[in-house]
Amino acid sequence: MNPASHLSLEHAALSRLVDKLNQEQALLTEATAEGLTDIISEKANIVAEMSTLAGNRHALLGKLGYSEDEAGMQKWMNEHASDADRDIWAGLFELAQDAKELNRVNGLLIGKKLSINQSALTILQGKTGTGNFYGPDGQNSIKSSGRRLGVV
Fold first, then answer.
1. Belongs to which family (predicted)?
2. N or C, which terminus of the chain has less Cβ within 10 Å?
3. Which pLDDT tens digit goes with each residue over 36-76?
């Protein structure tokens, strides 16, 4: 019974998640967001896989008398793990930090896109403080105080 036996699977899953987060970020910085739905679905599947793997590891730690969390895993690693297991465990933490930062930046990008879209909807719905851009006759209803362009 080795709680580190599937760390390589967790590492692979987390690597796939980081790749998806990078793909998501690339799409969020483009003018179009085509493909985001697929990436969101793929991310959800990877996170579910990671959750299952971590849950199994935590349950095994509990059977071995350790706390069923990362602190318990760290204690087990300090007492029983091979150098290779320690390397994978350290790599997991590095990848987790990368994923956390990518997710934070992607969240900011999503927030910015939502704000832009909300502003555009507000303008299109005529809810600006200046009223509608066009009146019932189809003419521009925004009056300017300057002279018209092209008129002397």
1. Belongs to the FlgN family.
2. C
3. 899 999 999 999 999 999 999 999 999 999 999 999 999 99
